[in-house]
Request: fold
Amino acid sequence: MSFFELINKRESCRDFMDKKVDKELLVKCIDAARLSPSACNSQPWSFVVVNNEEKSLLVAKCTQTAGLNKFTNNVPAFIVICEEEAKLIGGVSQKYAQGDVGIATINICYAATELGLSTCIMGSVDREKLKEILGLTENKNIRLVLAVGYANNDKVRNKVRKPIDEIMTYIG
Reply:
């Protein structure tokens, strides 16, 4: 599919099939993140892939803070996205790591879509409990958790977005 078809097809899924995700597909998704651009090529990210029924249920509970994300009980795999310290060159003072992590995250989502998988990006997470479950060090900076699996329904919803003239100023 073309890039614009891919953008149109990718959406947040909250209804997953009870079907395990092949490790090879998850590795391809992480490879897409690995190839993402980053400031000064700092690559300020790391990923924990959880593709185990027992651990996935524990991760799911960590995403259900404030009564949100109940759908995660049926998610077969998760990718925990961590921000690492960015090593910037030339005395650059601007911090780009959060944006870089965002780019890597969307690359995972687009790769998953291309591979027939669905995703949902979640930021509401019990980070301390998740670190404990996954055996991560206290200083690990969990930014996002991605639900990954196969959608129960592959019909693409109509995207409702602001009109282009509301978000763009064109100076020609």
About this structure: Residues 3-167 form a domain with the NADH Oxidase fold (CATH 3.40.109.10). The mean pLDDT is 95.
